[in-house]
């Protein structure tokens, strides 16, 4: 979805400081820097038990 938005926006989406530029960078980085299984299990357990509220990151 981010890639499609970048195609619509064009070159302006690559300007530093643009929301799409940051989203694209984050999506690309996530493919290489995935959290470990233990961290994912801990976060999911805390969320299910209501011990942590996940914040919206971009909105």
Comma- or semicolon-separated keywords:
single chain, 59 residues, mainly alpha, 56% helix, Acyl-CoA/acyl-ACP dehydrogenase, oxidoreductase activity, acting on the CH-CH group of donors, oxidoreductase
Description:
The protein has 59 residues and is mainly alpha-helical. It has one domain. The protein is built from three helices and no strands. The protein has helices at residues 2-9, 19-30, 37-49. Helix 1 runs antiparallel to helix 2. The longest helix has 13 residues, at 37-49. It is elongated and about 45 Å long. The two termini are 16 Å apart. The model has no long low-confidence stretch (mean pLDDT 79).
Helix-strand blueprint:
Elements (H helix, E strand, L loop, with lengths): L1 H8 L9 H12 L6 H13 L10
Protein name: Acyl-CoA/acyl-ACP dehydrogenase
Keywords: Oxidoreductase
GO molecular function, one term: oxidoreductase activity, acting on the CH-CH group of donors
Short structural description:
This protein is mostly helical.
Given as residue ranges, the uncertain stretches (5+ residues, pLDDT < 50) are none
Q: Largest sheet at a glance?
A: none
- Arithmetic mean pLDDT: 79
The shape, in one word, is elongated
Quaternary state of the chains: single chain
Distance between the termini: 16 Å
Number of domains: 1
Helix/strand-derived category reads mainly alpha
Beta fraction: under 5%
SSE topology string: HHH
Pfam families: Acyl-CoA_dh_2 (PF08028)
GO molecular function: oxidoreductase activity, acting on the CH-CH group of donors
Protein name: Acyl-CoA/acyl-ACP dehydrogenase
Keywords: Oxidoreductase
């Amino acid at each position: 979805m981010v890639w499609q938005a970048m195609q619509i926006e064009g070159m302006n989406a690559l300007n530093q400081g643009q929301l799409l530029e940051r989203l694209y960078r984050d999506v690309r980085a996530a493919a290489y820097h995935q959290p470990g299984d233990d961290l994912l299990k801990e976060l999911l357990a805390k969320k299910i038990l209501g011990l942590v509220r996940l914040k919206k990151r971009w909105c």
